[in-house]
From TrEMBL:
This is N(6)-L-threonylcarbamoyladenine synthase. It comes from Leptidea sinapis. GO terms for biological process: tRNA threonylcarbamoyladenosine modification. GO terms for molecular function: metal ion binding; tRNA N(6)-L-threonylcarbamoyladenine synthase activity. InterPro entries: ATPase_NBD, Gcp-like_dom, KAE1/TsaD, TsaD. The keyword Signal does not apply.
Amino acid sequence: MFINRSSIILTLSRQVLRTTLDRKPNLSLISNIRSRTYILGIETSCDDTGCAILDTNGNVISESIHNQNLLHLRNGGIIPDVAQDLHRRYIEPTVTNTLKEANLTMKEISAIAVTLEPGLPLSLAVGMKYAKHLARKFDKPIIPIHHMEAHALVARMQQHISFPFLTLLISGGHCLLAVVEDVKKFKLLGKSIDSAPGELFDKVARRMKLRNLFEYSKICGGQAIELAAAKSLNPHIFKLPLPLVDYKDCNFSFNGLKTAALLQLHRKEEEHRIEGDQLIPEYNDLCAGVLMAVTRHLVHRTQRAMEFCKQYKMIPDENAQLVVSGGVACNNYIFKNLSVLCEEMNYKIYRPTPKLCMDNGIMIAWNGVEKWRRSLDINMATDLQSLDIRADSPLGENLIPLVEKSRIRIKLLKIKLDL
Ligand code: KG4
Ligand code: ZN
């Protein structure tokens, strides 16, 4: 399934060109459009085959994405070999389609940005091999991209966000807090010591069998939990623990929450003698309990990161900014509670539009544009041997030991229910 989201932009730009030509051929306009510098971005780190072309002013020229979500929902999770097979099958049509939509050929592309780290090794390898093949065939440089850096920076494509800023990256594979000082200068303040919030949502939703309800049958677990939680009439009946309360750092943990949620689900299933495809009657309330617990944890760790940045003067008081990104940032309840925190702490809060929070080719091409403008990480086609994938790849300079040592105490912000 291809979604060419930028076809409207393209159609519009062609219309401008056509109307101008109808009146009087304007050759300088044509050559101006043709001489623009274009970056092609490729994303295959997990289960989406994404591609996009941006010009170096940050205009999205075209985009294609092949989403594997439905298949993985049916399989009960991502099976790496299956994801790789689908990337292999769709990488070429996705890239070809993106070029076609942009009305461009590979010759007119200036560089290829591709995700090389972190991610599923089998998936990453498909993107890297295809990017190298294109680079060698058409003599184009490759710009290697760190997937989490791309999540953080893409917010700058749509909004004016200056360096430095604090970022909270929440997805199916990661949970990170970092200060972004420049395009390639990240300082890591906290990370998950086990799983990620999106992974917890997906697992709990699957175990609750939310997919058996038609309205949740075709959406990811996180989105299903958000929608079901909004319908809860008794959001407090399931009490879930706040993780890592005794650790005065900015790290995260979601395994304890997951175990507690699954245990409560199991108890309710026993109590109601639930069988087969049935759901517990209180499924909305359990979703609310899980969502509130995750939100509380995310807000409190972010609050401590803000205090840390203040203490170490890492973020200017007069221009404090928080960027929330990654698939879980689509969650409005989480975002609204983070907005309350930002109001309290005098931060401005930003997040990319939902489709840019999720994995996509645009964020990779945008990171390529930001690096191109600064002449960073541009690897010529003749010199690609050293470029390789990295499944695990830490984000930036590790300041976690300093955060842990600082043991910053905070007066925890109360999470609002009725947002
Ligand atoms: O960033 P992303 O597209 O892929 C990774 O790099 O992991 O994030 C996907 C994750 C999934 O776990 C999905 O359940 C979660 O983002 N997600 C949400 C919402 N929409 C997507 N979680 C909570 N609320 C949502 N509305
Ligand atoms: Zn991601």
